[in-house]
Amino acid sequence: MPSAKALRITLIKSPIGYSERHKRTVKALGLHRIRQTVEQPDTLAVRGMVAKVAHLVKVEGKKS
Question: Which residues pair with 63 in a beta bridge?
Answer without folding.
Answer: 5
